[in-house]
Amino acid sequence: MLTRRQLIAGLGSAAISGGIVSSTAAFTATSSNSTASFTVVAPNYIELRAVNDPPIHVETNDDGIVTKLTPGNDTGLNEYAITRFEDIVEVHNVSSVALSGLYFDFVVESESDTLSSSDATEIEETLSVTAGSETLTTTGESGDDLLAVSDAESAADGILSSGEESVPFGVQVDLIPDSGESSLSDLPDPNDFSATLRVIVETEE
Hints:
- With 205 residues, this protein is mainly beta.
- The protein is built from two helices and 14 strands, in the order E-E-E-E-E-E-E-E-E-E-H-E-E-H-E-E.
- 37% of the residues are buried.
- It comes from Halobellus rubicundus.
């Protein structure tokens, strides 16, 4: 029987200045059954670790776990551009069971009266997860499975085995208006919204 768990990774917001977006947001990985809770309830399935050493576009804690996503580092993101950060994070299977699916979605919530729910949806639509050169449909369980799309050898059969097997992913931010679902060319003030990346983990038990 397939079972799905969620790992919640807080992405946070990004600020734009002079045509450049600089992310100062936390990207902390904790497990939860709800997007509203960041309580650690199932930490034994996966861990998020930086692909590169030293880390590029992410920051890690002393244990090597990704704690902050810093797209573009000091240069940030350009307006009117699609910016891709390929293979910057690895999903490690640290459980005792095989994983048969990894799905992602972004949840953006307004933190002020200046952003409506439709504005939050527009921000969500600028964000996607990538597998190598492929951009995933990042809509949770109805979206693309990283294990099915990735060309990583560890996911060749669509299964991520137990015992520290890993598969990389990246992030894409599309700020070309109407090239995708969003009409945004930049991102709002970082104090006006928060964003969360959900990782839905499918296991074979």
